[in-house]
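Q: I have 105 residues here and want to know how they pack in 3D. Can you give me a structure?
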Amino acid sequence: MLTPSDRVKLITQISSLLGSENWSVIDLTMKQFSLPTSQAWGSDDRASYIMQMISEASDDVLLSLAAHVGIETSPRTSVIEPGFWLPGAQFNRKAPEVGAAHGGP
């Protein structure tokens, strides 16, 4: 489930990317994702149009549309493994005794 913040971010990113297309591609895309279209949009602001048309879309549709326009939405797993770490090894270093670090008794 997307948080409201996630939805806002996706909607604005989708609108920005898809907004660079011409009107026929935008409406075709909306129709393919079962989203509304409007023939009576009062401006040439494509991003605002897209925001309005997708704002009520389900999370699944938003995620599919995001993937369609090239937005990666799945978390990436890290494949970085530090070379100094030994598999199965545990760190068991004892803390220095008080005074030992300063040359004391």
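Q: Anything worth noting?
A: The chain has a mean pLDDT of 85. The CA atoms of residues 14 and 66 lie 6 Å apart.
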